[in-house]
Amino acid sequence: MNKFTVFTRTWWRENPDWPDGLEPCIGPKRTIGRCQTIGQAREMCRQYNQTTGQTKANRRLSRKAEFTED
């Protein structure tokens, strides 16, 4: 049984009327994986944030991996 859900979401959205063209906006959660231990969840987040999370669009919108306990 999986105990943790790892997901991504953005913290900003494009809006040219706001400073720097970004408006605060918590996006929907998008599940990227499930795991059994908190260590696995942290590692999955770390790997995502160091690789996939480093694209230009992801950095601009602050798309980060997070996790919750189910």
What brief labels describe this structure?
single chain; 70 residues; alpha+beta; 3-stranded antiparallel β-sheet; two-stranded antiparallel ribbon; 26% helix
Structure in words:
The structure is a single chain. With 70 residues, the protein is an alpha+beta fold. It has two helices and five strands. A three-stranded antiparallel beta sheet has the order 4-1-5, covered by helices on one side. It has a two-stranded antiparallel sheet with strand order 2-3. Strand 2 (12-14) and strand 3 form a beta hairpin.
- First-residue to last-residue Cα separation: 10 Å
Over the alpha carbons, how many angstroms does the gyration radius reach? 14 Å
Number of strands: 5
The DSSP helix count reads 2
Please estimate the helix content.
25-40%
Oligomer: single chain
Biggest sheet overview? 3 strands, antiparallel
Query: Roughly what fraction of the amino acids lie in strands?
Result: 25-35%
Question: Given the helix and strand composition, which structural class is it?
Answer: alpha+beta
Give the topology string: H per helix, E per strand: EEEEHHE
Shape: elongated
- Average pLDDT confidence is 94
Largest beta sheet: strand ordering: 4-1-5
- Runs with pLDDT <50, length 5+? none
Quick take:
The chain has about 70 residues and is of the alpha+beta class. It is built from two helices and five strands, in the order E-E-E-E-H-H-E.
Fold topology:
Layout: E1 4-9, E2 12-14, E3 22-24, E4 30-35, H1 38-50, H2 56-60, E5 64-69
Antiparallel strand pairs: 1-4, 1-5, 2-3
